[in-house]
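ARCHIVE CARD
SHELF: 3
SLOT: left
DATA:
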Amino acid sequence: MNNPGMQPAGAGADVDLFDTANDRFKRSFGAWFWGSMVAATVLHMAIMAFFPNLSASDVSFAMDEFEAIELPPEIDVPPPPEQIQRPANPVISDAVIDEDITISPTTFDDNQPDDLPPPRADAGAGTGDGPTFTPFTVAPEVRNRQAVGRALEREYPPLLRDAGVGGTVLMYFFIDENGVVQEFQVHETSGHNALDQAAMRVAEVFEFSAAMNRDTRVPVWIQIPITFTTR
């Protein structure tokens, strides 16, 4: 049996049976290093010999002189406003108010305006006088607006409604002291005789409240536009 640590006969004394690739690389490091140095030197010399000459461009720059800027004048900051005094806290009064106190009724006799003319002595306008002005403080109001609206739809001439023709008739109404319409007439025509006649029929439906001058009922003439339109 051979001893592993013993070398065979005829073998050199410098041969190691356990030589590895790493050991062989380390022994060849010197040759690789110096070979690389020589190759790099030759490459650099070739580049320096055959590379064109380079010239550096002028990269200098001139600096403009600084310009002195005048500073704005100093502004005097006003002092803060004085603190506003807090309002006083409300204080409950000790006054005793009688719960039986009532407000007296307000009437025109106690509070008569100074710029209104007095009521006419002849009880105002009449039907035979034609449209005239009668002073009043409370104007008459229409009391049956729904009935007037139905009359407008009912009396609208079908030919004009289908053709999209409309118009406004300005009517005069004479209302007596009881709010009853005593007379009405066309003041401004619509331009269509059929619409004017329809407005006359609608005027018969109107009902009003009485006009008041202060606390007195008065007969008045008023004007109301009656408009026919296809919405």
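SLOT: right
DATA:
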Amino acid sequence: MAHNKTKFGSLRRALLASTLAVVAMGGAAPAFAADVTLLNVSYDVARELYKEINPLFEAQYQKQTGKTIEIKQSHGGSSKQARAVADGLEGAVVTMNQANDIDMLADRGLVVADWAKKFPNNASPSYSTMVYLVRKGNPQGIKDWTDLAKPGVKVVIPNPKTAGNGRYTYLAAWGSVLQKGGTDAQARELVTKIFKNVPVLDGGGRAATTTFTQRQIGDVLVTFENEVNLVRAEFGDSFDIVYPASSILAENPVAVVDKVVDKRGIRKEATAYLNFLYSEAGQEVIAKHYLRPRSPAVAKKYAAQFKPIKLFTVDEVFGGWRAAQKRHFDDGGEFDRIYATK
């Protein structure tokens, strides 16, 4: 019995020593605690972009200031993410794909009203547009927006109520009619037919990509140019990219969440992070991820990967994001009425 007790005691001590070793190696607590931690609340398909940008900024910031900084990420549908910040998610910065999500935060007093003037290019360090990803060989012969309305064509688009690329797709299709001299009634008819062809309305852009590429649903995915290029890079020859005759300018605006950074005393760090996106190093990563950069030098370097396309803006065609949101995407707006007839 004594022998068994001794044996059990030795085993218990060995297990305790093992547990303490795991704790010492970081099993129960982080081995590194940064001087400053920031949360970047971003849209769905920007995950890979910031996964590469963040460590570059962290290294530069430490070299310049001697302080360590850690950037954490939160991703989802752009509008869903903005609402999360409005509801209390303490993002120090927001990096979105449409201005009206940041306008909503400004209306709630979380972001200053003139946020778009705080950084260059309407506080948008990059931009994109909406293009098509089709199955290899483009069996449905999809070339332009009207082809998405043809009977039998299955179109994958995320929900315009929650996802920025869904909203841009809707506006790009509507605007394509007006740009050719068509009427609002004709634009409404086209968009109605397109959404009748949508088999599933995912909540965000990445979910829509998964539906198309992995679940093998749909003939065409409409999403940001950078997203379709990333899919091509990952899946190789399984898909083709099609550029419509015209599309919409999709800016990627950023802002400091003033209420959060002032509360936590981290305005300087948050501002430095967003300024890094405009640096040559940040612009290089942006271009590598198929977002169109603002830097003329970087844009020239990567010109071959960005096909020229006629772009129109939300301001030109819809009178700005606030007007577009109110008419098309607020509850009871054009989209709700169109989708109710699906």
